[in-house]
Design brief:
By secondary structure, the chain is mainly alpha-helical. The protein is built from eight helices and two strands; from the N terminus they run H-H-E-H-H-H-H-H-E-H. It starts with a helix and ends with a helix.
Length: about 200
């Protein structure tokens, strides 16, 4: 009996495993995401350079406005207070006095400083992220060609509405996969690229 079971186990181990069934997908976000996930070269997305620049400009202007408000408060303090006034000197020079002072001017300073702290953090994070995005490479012509042919291979593009022309501006596209730069690939592209197209 054990000999029979052993032969069944051996037979099952030697038979080819059945293919894993593919999940059916309608053309759209699901099929597009699947296409991108199957090929690292297809990880091509919009950079949104104009929107990013506008966002940074708005943040910069908001900070500039807050900076002006802080300078106005500082000028008020300097005008209204005497240099030899002990309370003014403590608020201007001692952090714990500034942080705990109950007078209206100190409260205004702290409130404004809180707004500046939050906005400057948002601005610096946006600057760092933008510098990272700007460092991303453009897709290679070959990758972009394959990507666009797949995206447009249906009677209509995979995504509809405004997204039909989502990838029209090729200057605004980035590739998340690193661009191949090995010597053999460079040589083949340079001398046989016409043949490989």
């Amino acid at each position: 009996m054990s000999q029979c079971n052993d032969s069944v186990v051996i037979e099952l181990a030697q038979s080819p495993s059945p293919p894993i069934p593919q999940t059916p997908r309608l053309p759209g976000y699901s099929s597009f995401a699947h296409f991108i996930s199957q090929d690292g070269d297809a990880a091509i997305y919009r950079r949104y350079e104009s929107l990013s620049a506008r966002n940074l400009l708005y943040l910069q202007s908001e900070l500039h406005e807050l900076e002006g408000q802080l300078e106005a408060l500082d000028a008020e303090d300097a005008k209204d207070r005497h240099v030899d006034d002990q309370e003014s000197q403590k608020i201007a020079r001692l952090w714990h006095h500034y942080a705990r002072a109950g007078n209206a001017r100190a409260v205004r300073h702290r409130g404004l400083q809180g707004k500046i702290r939050a906005k400057i953090k948002e601005y610096h994070e946006a600057l760092v992220l933008e510098s990272r995005v700007l460092a991303l490479s453009a897709p290679t012509p070959r990758s972009l060609d394959i990507f666009k042919r797949w995206y447009l291979h249906y009677p209509r593009p995979v995504l509809w509405g405004r997204d039909e022309d989502l990838f029209r501006n090729e200057q605004d596209l980035v590739a998340l996969a690193p661009v191949e730069t090995d010597r053999l690939n460079i040589f083949l592209q340079k001398y046989l690229g016409w043949f490989l197209k």
